[in-house]
Amino acid sequence: MDTGKLHGLAEKMMGVPLASAKAFPLLAMLLVLAYIAVFLVQPFFLQNNLLNGDTPGIYFSSWYTKEYLFPRITGWDPFFFFGYPENHFYGPLVPYASSLLSLFMPLESAFKLLVAAALLLTPLSFYYFARSFGLSGKDSALAMLAMFSLLFVRPDELVGGNLSSLFESGFVANSVALPVFFFYFGSLKRGAANGLFVLPAVLLSLTLLAHTFSGVAAFIAGVAFAISGWQRQRLVFIARHFSLAFLLSAFWLVPAIAKIGYSDVSTSGTVPFDFLVLTIAVVLAFYLGSRKESGAAEPLAFVALLSGFSFLGKIANVPFHFQRLFMFLVLMAPVIIFFVLRALGRQKALWVPFIAACLLVAVFSPGINPGGVSILKSVQGTDEKIHGRLYIDAPLNAESQFEELQHLIPMQYSANSVKGQQVHSSRNSRYIFYMEQALDGNHSQWGVPLDLNLVSSMGEDARALVPFQMRLFGITHVVSAEKRFEEWEEVQDLFAIYLRDENTGETSLHNYKLYKVGGSPIAEVLKARPEVAEGNWDDAVKGWFMSNAVKDTILVSEPVPGFAGAGGETVDVIEQSSTMERMKFRVNSANPVPVLIKISHFPNWRAYSDGTELRIYRASPYFMLVYAKGEFELRYVNALADTAGYALSAVGIAVVAFILLNRKRPFFGMPA
Question: Does residue 71 have a cis peptide bond before it, meaning omega lies within 30 degrees of 0?
Answer without folding.
Answer: yes
